[in-house]
Amino acid sequence: xxxxxxxxxxxxxxxxxxxxxxxxxxxxxxxxxxxxxxxxxxxxxxxxxxxxxxxxxxxxxxxxxxxxxxxxxxxxxxxxxxxxxxxxxxxxxxxxxxxxxxxxxxxxxxxxxxxxxxxxxxxxxxxxxxxxxxxxxxxxxxxxxxxxxxxxxxxxxxxxxxxxxxxxxxxxxxxxxxxxxxxxxxxxxxxxxxxxxxxxxxxxxxxxxxxxxxxxxxxxxxxxxxxxxxxxxxxxxxxxxxxxxxxxxxxxxxxxxxxxxxxxxxxxxxxxxxxxxxxxxxxxxxxxxxxxxxxxxxxxxxxxxxxxxxxxxxxxxxxxxxxxxxxxxxxxxxxxxxxxxxxxxxxxxxxxxxxxxxxxxxxxxxxxxxxxxxxxxxxxxxxxxxxxxxxxxxxxxxxxxxxxxxxx
Length: 408
What we know:
Elements: H1 3-11, H2 13-18, H3 20-33, H4 44-49, H5 54-57, H6 59-76, H7 79-85, H8 89-105, H9 109-119, H10 123-145, H11 147-153, H12 160-181, H13 183-211, E1 213-214, E2 221-222, E3 240-242, E4 248-252, H14 256-265, H15 296-321, H16 328-344, H17 349-369, H18 379-407
């Protein structure tokens, strides 16, 4: 047991709340190799980490953690995997934090666990639990604070999830090295990080509440681009149009029926505009209890609305694709936001992963042809069309099963 082990476990909470397996991998590497690195050898934290149990510093542990860290990095920007892991995210991160804290605070981790079973929690084990609980709550704060990334680019259509992935990975690595050098200062920065995440989360909640307008009939706060009040179902007199990221525009919508499809296309309830969290065809809105695609006619109408966008999307994609190299990124972003996100958002995670794998190979084959004159102009439209057809087929297949069960 060492004071610096306690400090490390406490200061590393935000890192485990962001990238738990990467943080565990780096901690294991520091415990094994830290004393052999010239500028780290004199660190009290490194000397404390060196007393971790042999299993935690073994090559087997390092390789397992490396595989998990790579998988974690690849999965972080995948909307389908995030949807599956959403309910388990906090538990997994706190569990990893708990095990690593056990290893650091008491080198005899196995005997510590046995002692807990026999005699209850001691100081060392209790501190590990405190760190795990702290990791769980910071993970919740992180998820709430990153609403803007998940709201704007849940499917990584414009690359925000990728950027966030790299930023958090870099921050985790640099943060753990900072703990090694300045452990006390790191604790202060970790506390400030948790407070900042809490502040951003609260700001978003207040901002969304402030944007709501009272219902003309019952006074219930209602999102300005909703078509009806979530409480009394009274029609909103002049709902605002839906923006490209699902947020309300300043102007009033011109067609109420189209407004429903625009809201659905941005993964929002077609009645009260509340964000829909699940990746499935039929789901119940948390606010107004409206069921998405309650009938086959509603689902077919939605597909028809998306199909009507296809010709315009292909034309604009062709124009952007005709610009060598430079036109690739804006072309892909455009067709994903205007067309594909409206399909992919309702494809269940398992089907979505299969579709992504298939499109991955198609996409890179086509991208390799983009610099070629004339042929290059067809690359982005072909990427758009292939994505549209594959995701539409996946969505229709799932919808047939869901709607059949609902009407049975």
